[in-house]
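Notebook B, p. 112. Complex prediction, attempt 2.
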Amino acid sequence: MRRADVQRGLWVTLFVSPGLAVVVCIILVPLFLSLYNSLFSWNQLVVDRFAGLENFRRIFAAEPYRTRFLNALGNNARWFAATMLIQNTCGLFFGWALSRKIAGHAFFRRVFFIPVLFSIVAVGFLWGLYLKPNGLVNGFLAALGRRDLARAWLGDESLATWSIVLVNIWRWVGFPSLVFMAAIDAVPLDCLEAAYLDGAREATVFGRIILPLIVPAVTIITVLTIIGSLNVFEQVYTMAGLDGSPDYSTDTIGTLFYRTAFGSVDSGNPQIGVGSAIGVVIYVLTFAASIGSIAGLRRREAAA
Amino acid sequence: MSLKRLAFVFLCLAFTAGGLFAQKTTLTYWTWRPEDVDKYDQLLKVFEAQNPGIDVVQTAQKNTEYNTILAAALSGGAGPDVFQSRAYGGLETFAQSGYMEPLSSWVPELASFSRAAIRGATSIKDGKVYGVPFASQTLFVYYNGKIYADLGLKVPDTWDQFLSNLAAMKKAGIQPLANGAKEGWTLEVMMGALCPDFYGANSFFDAVVQGKTTFQDPRFVGAIQKLKDLIPYMPDLYMGVSYTDMQSAFINETAGHFIGGSFEAGYFASQNPSLQFDVFPGPAAKAGDPHYVSVYADGNFSMNANSKNKEAAAKLLRFFASKQTGDFFIRTLKQVSSVPGVDTSADPFIARVLTLQKYNTPYVFLVGFRYQQPTGSTLIQSALQGFFAGKIDAAEVCRQVQEGIATYYAPFKK
């Protein structure tokens, strides 16, 4: 190896190492620790004995863990479906509308993005107030003369998860809008001009020219949505609490993990082994889903 | 005085002061009550005055994160010398992990504490006492005295009288009950305040703990069924009404009753000094029956098993077990102290709570079934939410609770 290469390698190592150290300390080490913890049975807060895959078996096969886990995973799936359908579709539309330079687009671009900058805890807390039985939302409905539509938004099992999802969409829709806007702005002008000269309508241009060219942005947003949906925690924690209240209807694998691993003051003791196993499952799911979707969408990108 | 001499005197003084300093022990103490830090400081000053060699440094952690932070500190071999610890299952977590010092020999005063209080500080595994109990909590019904007087209502003796009082308030356009169902634990409290008279209080508790009956006992199912009578008197959209909504409705006198625990009284009084509130125990099935209240130990003061200052820590714990601390709990914190023989005449509310405790029964799921997952509390809280939402009936609530506990509770397995 040439001396210059060695020197270059050393420099690279020097610059990479602080970041690498941080990643190792706060991501890799805890990850492997939780994998390690998940292989043992625990007597309260102390490691008891090696248990193999027993904790994982309990999550998937023993009651009540199985019901709780599948219920929570189902809610994560709802988060994903609603976020993909509503948030990302709206985001795509907003991004396209903003890139069309409609009147006041600079103003709207900022307005859409402002909620993204808000602290998730503050958003959860404030919307929690708005969604109370006598809160702003029901007050608004009453002012419209539709008091009959008033609901216990966060207390009704059939509505609670959707209410929290919608609040999160409200907060986050600016992000895909901005990404899609940037992607659409980057579509080469000559392609668009050629299409317009050929007399293509706006819908055709969007479907045949713009959409295929922004697939990389779609990939990024999809992967982020998958990761975000599997890691939902703060939104539920601030608006519904740790117990997945009411009756586990808002429970996600994130809250289930926290509750199981650390316990909750009003209802239960920590179960570190099972909790760590849930943590590992979340990691594996997130990893597999991300890799899978990236691979799938890459193929689409290549085809397009 | 020559300069040399002055230096000598100065050095002597410095050494004596240093010597005094070296003898001083600093104890660390943790609490989950950030709101009471100033009050505890007053108490700790009294202790420091009595024990000149000991300084106590108090640290408060947020209530909901206390267990996690404490567990992390203790498992790392650090943590405070003396700390507040939870009762029952919450104590078990730390006691079984070996982080707590058994106290019977350190704190002889424990022998005089009531059995109910000691139960909350005792590990079910080895039967040792790991804490000095500080307060008990009692569950009952708060009512607004002014509304009662205005409507000419009397404190109810029976369930039917209770319902007719609620109906009278509703008719007068006043929200009869403040209670909602958004947070499951408030429903468990409601169960604890109202159901014992119907499920047979202590006789049922003793039987179910020993596995001689189950939660599907008709008495227990019937008691849960009774709660359904209250739904017409709960707030609109009660499924979305949270704990803080409940508190503010009662404090602002828009609701006439609040089913809750003795721990509310201090907050009610401080938030609205003109609020005239009093309490009555859960109404009985028929006139003349005793009125049972659910009672539980709130928490304890415990010693770190790895403390380097055990002698000093024991002094502090003995102080916490003394009448001085008992008086402090009653006068300053407005809590029902667990210290035996404390004078309650200074506070009529606490005297009233102690009268109600004449017929006491353990708060069933906390005292008996909060040791393993899924705890009885987890199960009843979510099942009651389904019950109040109208999704499941009382029999199904009891089935879910029974089957959940039976997954680990040995007396239910045979």
